[in-house]
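User: Quick sanity check before I run a bigger batch. Here is a single chain. Can you write out its predicted 3D structure?
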Amino acid sequence: MDELVEFLRARLAEDERAARQATEGPWTAEVSGETGHCVIPSDAQSTREYVARTQLYAAAFDAEHIARHDPARVLREIEAKRRLLNEYTKVATNDVNEVEYAHGWANALGEAVRLLALPYADHPNYRKEWRPDGGQ
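Assistant: Done. Predicted structure follows.
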């Protein structure tokens, strides 16, 4: 599990870098006759200041989805995931005889860590055995 935790920390660092380099959120989805369905920063003066623009049939849905996953939200999610990883690391390294429930708590958090890694299953360093179902 140590390698899985390292893998996740590296992916979260990549996600954080990308979020911090993007236009700061929050973002909102707007429709403009000039520019179509746009995702704009909340402090934008016009829809011409968009960070993303969609013009396909489902463009309104795409714009809403993109806006909901703005950098501010991504950074909050990264912080929550890091806190979970820290909690898992703390509990998993405890002597299970020291605290009676530690083993069960570590197992439960370990399963949560495996679930956190699933979005990165397409990454070349992701291992099949990290899947919650044991790679099946």
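Helices lie at 2-21, 59-68, 71-92, 102-117.

User: Great, the batch can go ahead then.
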